[in-house]
Prior knowledge:
The complex is a heterodimer. A six-stranded mixed β-sheet of chain A has the order 2-1-6-5-4-3. In chain A, 20% of the residues lie in helices and 45% in strands. Chain A has one domain: Nuclear Transport Factor 2, Chain: A. By secondary structure, chain A is an alpha+beta fold. Chain B is α+β, with helices and mostly antiparallel strands. In chain B, 27% of the residues lie in helices and 26% in strands. Chain B has helices at 26-37, 129-133, 162-166, 170-177, 199-205, 212-215, 217-228, 282-289, 291-298, 344-357, 365-379, 403-406, 427-444, and strands spanning 7-10, 15-19, 42-46, 55-61, 64-70, 76-80, 95-97, 100-102, 109-111, 116-118, 143-147, 150-154, 184-186, 191-195, 254-258, 264-268, 300-305, 309-314, 316-326, 329-339, 386-387, 398-399, 414-418. In chain B, strand 1 and strand 2 form a beta hairpin. The longest helix of chain B is centred in the last third of the chain and has 18 residues, at 427-444. The N and C termini of chain B lie close together (9 Å). Chain A: Keywords: Dioxygenase, Oxidoreductase, Plasmid. Chain A: One of its GO terms (molecular function) is dioxygenase activity.
Amino acid sequence: xxxxxxxxxxxxxxxxxxxxxxxxxxxxxxxxxxxxxxxxxxxxxxxxxxxxxxxxxxxxxxxxxxxxxxxxxxxxxxxxxxxxxxxxxxxxxxxxxxxxxxxxxxxxxxxxxxxxxxxxxxxxxxxxxxxxxxxxxxxxxxxxxxxxxxxxxxxxxxxxxxxxxx
Amino acid sequence: xxxxxxxxxxxxxxxxxxxxxxxxxxxxxxxxxxxxxxxxxxxxxxxxxxxxxxxxxxxxxxxxxxxxxxxxxxxxxxxxxxxxxxxxxxxxxxxxxxxxxxxxxxxxxxxxxxxxxxxxxxxxxxxxxxxxxxxxxxxxxxxxxxxxxxxxxxxxxxxxxxxxxxxxxxxxxxxxxxxxxxxxxxxxxxxxxxxxxxxxxxxxxxxxxxxxxxxxxxxxxxxxxxxxxxxxxxxxxxxxxxxxxxxxxxxxxxxxxxxxxxxxxxxxxxxxxxxxxxxxxxxxxxxxxxxxxxxxxxxxxxxxxxxxxxxxxxxxxxxxxxxxxxxxxxxxxxxxxxxxxxxxxxxxxxxxxxxxxxxxxxxxxxxxxxxxxxxxxxxxxxxxxxxxxxxxxxxxxxxxxxxxxxxxxxxxxxxxxxxxxxxxxxxxxxxxxxxxxxxxxxxxx
Lengths: 166, 445
């Protein structure tokens, strides 16, 4: 029987993901995800509830399949996107990591985050904050991300936002 | 300064120039708020945002908080969203349902027709007779009108009827409204973003075909990658099904139409493609409206209803409301616009294209908004100078319409029809002619 994912392991993976984003190691970041991973940042339906159904309601970002994250990385690193050249300097801080559900093969992990961003082009600093809900799974002995949901609490987007700055 | 110091419009000499000061000057901005946003028709929202009795939604005109509300009889009204007692904003949510608004400050209350229902402790209040003669209801907007579910309001009573303001551009709203017999709705989920640049950058960019290949090459490469390696996971886009924007495209690919009062359309031929969310109703739309109008519904269309409303129907359908916050700060609220009753698959396709292309968290819009900020930095705000972005297409622009517009009986003031590389910039002239008409008095006062 495989051991369950511990909180320490979950926390380590979340910190590792944050570090890869913070240091612009996007190819390594994509590798953390399963091929059929879901990456979802819902929009807000009103003042108190986010959208719940990505097929019938709007999301800020919704992709099913790692392939789509590769597209985003390709755009980000292509040198052909004004918005991404240069990328903003970001620092993710993750806290309150808890496993809310888990068995031998997976763990649902919730956490809080703040992502500070400094846009060197505009010399402008801002931040976003919210909650993450990760679903971690074990694939061939390696913990990977099968789902990441980002609940963005300050959702008036300052000019633009991308997969690495949320 | 005279208006000609801001807009240099000499058609006979082939000159149209805009001074960079209109993007940076505080006096210009203040005059715009008065003359453009508080002095005439602006778009408020869709009637479907307040569908049932007592539903309301809140918005803003210029500096004023505004509430659009449906009363118990189902009639829509538009009011200044402020209690006449002390000015507190009454409705504080984006939308809701309220037969009665009770001011949270001193409990004056108002029904959904805007009438004052009660003043707390009125009889003990020792009011004068003059007070009793006042109307204590909410202030109605002097102008409020509904064109096929598109609601417009005006803080000034001195406006032409809405139909006159919209003119021929109303036929382009028909192309949106007629996509469903049941009307239009906004997909749940709202997106708001701000950028550090002047609001007219957004106004222009919606009509700007010239920037597409140079601003969005990273998006175009993603489209190419998706075409090369087909995967069911990826988002199908109408852009990849069209040649009209490609460098090697030939023949007539689209053009532009300019209308009175500052409205403009930039359009391209997309064809009836399965990547469009309308595809599964292509037959029924043709039956109901004829093939010509149906094909126009499938065309790429970026419509501006001056000054604050844009409907971009290219990748999916986006409704935008532009709100200037300062000369160099703008807020954009956007929604995914959809015909009611479309199939689940069509709705999914519409939503996915919207998110991929239009969102400020997507793969195209960020490159636009960053460019606006680059322009704003380039304008600087120091000594003003004439910009050169308004000359392209001047010798292709003709008075009246053309055979494509004729298909939907469109009679614009000016039109351009050309190969895809022309990427006409003359349609901004309609914005600035309307702008100059409205601003002349304010700026020269």
